[in-house]
Design goal:
The protein has helices spanning 3-13, 186-208, 264-268, 308-312; strands at 21-22, 29-39, 42-43, 59-70, 75-80, 84-91, 94-101, 103-108, 117-121, 124-128, 132-137, 142-147, 149-153, 159-162, 165-168, 176-177, 218-222, 227-231, 237-238, 244-245, 285-290, 295-300. By secondary structure, the protein is mostly beta strands. It has two domains: 25-185, Jelly Rolls (Sandwich), CATH 2.60.120; 188-312, no CATH class.
Length: 324
Amino acid sequence: MGKYAYLLVLILIAPAVWAQDIVSARSGLVHHVEGDATLGGKPVEFSNSRFPIAGVDQVLAVEKGFVEVLLTPGAFLRLDAGSSFRLLSNQLDDTKLEILSGTALVELDELLKGNRITVQVGAVQTALVKNGLYYFDAEAGRLKVFEGKAQAAGDGLPLDVTKGRTVLFEPVMKAEKFKTKNAKDELFFWSQERATRLALANISASRSIRTSSIRSSYWAWDPWLGMFTFMPRSGNLGSPFGIYWYNPATVWVVFQPRNAGIDMSASAGGSGNSWGGLQSGRSAAAPSASADSGMVRSTPAVSAPVSAPAAAAAPAAAPASRGR
């Protein structure tokens, strides 16, 4: 059994705990680091459930390994060794970032109405228009669109760049075709692995939430895997990596394993084919915002059922967080 299949079985048979909903107040929270990275010249560290948030004009540099940063809900920025970026604006309705060196991949699974994401490389600013997968190379001054649609604006007229097209950010930009299968590198495959892991956390978090009423997409904390995941308002939302995002109203389509060696139906109070609302007496730690430090702190999550209005109302100032 593959490692992700094994994790999925554990998620399906594990007791459910409350997945506290946390809504980002701004973009730029460092969610996951594999290797070494610095933020504002200081090493990025995760300790005592505290997670750094990139501030405007702060530079995050990856010395080795990979880094994942949460932008607007449903948008992930991933960088590899030798890459760096800074936020020009961290507002959800106007997120702007500049890739200073190396390569970066933006996975955009949902762009909420009113939100904007712009990526700058050199003098060229690229607006991400549709859900998709966008690869930026700061050294070459190039954009590759694996999925989606972007609009690059330099000295001349804006240029639309669509799926399977690449463009060099030169004085005169011209979109050309490229073979997506041949353009996948270590950053691409690491991003794909991260997407798969986040999808497992999404299933776990979705079945833990006691309400199906979601007012807007957000980042949800999953205590089982110890990470945040994307929670879409409309379930069954696909990503460019071929995974799907669910929410409490749609996660029932992911069935419990019939042959996991455990009969779930009796304890769940339902059939063995759907979620049965398993509960746990334990609580788990979920991050919440600390406005003074710009970090996320750990606070107890709720493990008992709550009313639908209380569950839907996320903390107004809470940014989202980190994964392992």
